[in-house]
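Human: We require from you a standard protein entry with sequence in single-letter code and fold as tokens, and nothing else.

Assistant:
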Amino acid sequence: MKAKLLGLIEIGRKKEAEVFVPLVDDSAPDRPGTWTVKDTVSHLASWREVATGELDSVRTGAPAPDVADEDDVQNAKFYAQTHDEPARSVLESATRSWDALAAAVDACTEEQLQAPRPHHSQLKVWQVVPENAIDHMADHLGYWYADRRDAVSEEKVAMWRYDVEVAAFPEDRRRAVEEYVLARFYAAQGRIDEARARMKRSFELRSDLRDYAKNDPELAKLNA
């Protein structure tokens, strides 16, 4: 597991360096109230620091990072803390956060990586790595391309996440989740046939997702 997680960190780091890092500067946002790329990179780094803290907590017994129950509340805190930092500082912090996350994984034993995640005992702590190295990155890349009405690149990012996750975790339960995520993506794009096909694969791999899907507003179009 450790080698797999370290590989995912490098994949995520390269994707951030390829798309976001060259665009980080001290420019004001295009529209008042929106995030700049600098804000996005700070946001991603801040959550990687939380992931690192969770891994270190399991390994050392130290308290896990204290974050708000509501993501929007915590995101606002991170934004307030980092928005006025200069671009150079943000890039340095981002690099440190990737290095720290990799070091935290490397320092854990395989048994520690399988321990319950702090504050989310139904999950294992290793899951913070793909969540922050790949999934969170894909989310914000998708937002970036959607804002620019670049549907082709937006779909490529959705498939990038799918391909990376499925290659790393081909087990049915994990693959079912990635099929489900793609179904939500295609539903949001109005591509209903593709969404239904992905959802069918998801249910075939993991039938318990049917109940979850019934209450998912992103999939309402599939039930129309």
Observations:
- The CA atoms of residues 142 and 155 lie 8 Å apart.
